[in-house]
Amino acid sequence: GFHIQLNSTGQRFLVTPSQTIAEVLLSAKVDIMLSCEQGVCGSCITDVIEGIPDHRDCVLTEEERAENTQITLCCSRSKSPVLVLDL
Ligand code: FES
């Protein structure tokens, strides 16, 4: 697993291997946009402040993935121990 951190409040949450980032945020009552939940629509794209996403979507372009400044919350994960999100 890995942790996500909300940039606004500094709150950190653990994302276990069986959870998605979106699930963890929803159960923490963080307001996020979701639609397809399969990495295709782009509704859940969120800016990354710090950390390296493990991109699992098919909506970001190769250039966007390489920049590591955005992530799809519904399916992507983290390569770094902590991912700070612009939330
Ligand atoms: Fe569609 Fe995440 S909800 S890409």
UniProtKB/TrEMBL annotation:
Domain 2Fe-2S ferredoxin-type as annotated: residue spans: 2-87
Superkingdom, taxonomy of origin: Bacteria
Record's protein name: Oxidoreductase
